Amino acid sequence: MADRAPPADGAGGASVGEVAELYLGNILYAIELAALSLEEQGKRPDAAFYRGIARKLAEAKGRSQRPPSSGEQGAAGREPGP
User: Fold this and answer.
1) Within 10 A of 47 (CB to CB), how many other CB atoms are there?
2) Burial of 58: CB neighbours in 10 Å, binned 0-12, 13-18, 19+
């Protein structure tokens, strides 16, 4: 994948956050490759650090995709009955 250029999608003036969100899957993959390499080098604390960054990014993406809640939901994400 390193020889592929990002698609020209008109995001020339996009913010860092917008670009990061667009390529989040690629970023998480690259972070995991770095963590695996660090583990192979015996640098487990460093690998854990990078996996922690990836976890925070993934959690932030999950929070941004959730619809705003208007209260507690019942089992399996359904609204409580009357």
Assistant:
1) 20
2) middle
pTM of the full predicted structure? 0.65
Residue 35, number of CB atoms within 10 A of its CB: 21
Residues near 73 by beta carbon (within 8 Å), at least 6 away in sequence = 79, 80
Which pLDDT value is given to residue 36?
A: 98
What DSSP letter does each residue of 8-64 carry, written as one string?
--S-TT--HHHHHHHTHHHHHHHHHHHHHHHHHTT-HHHHHHHHHHHHHHHHHHHHH
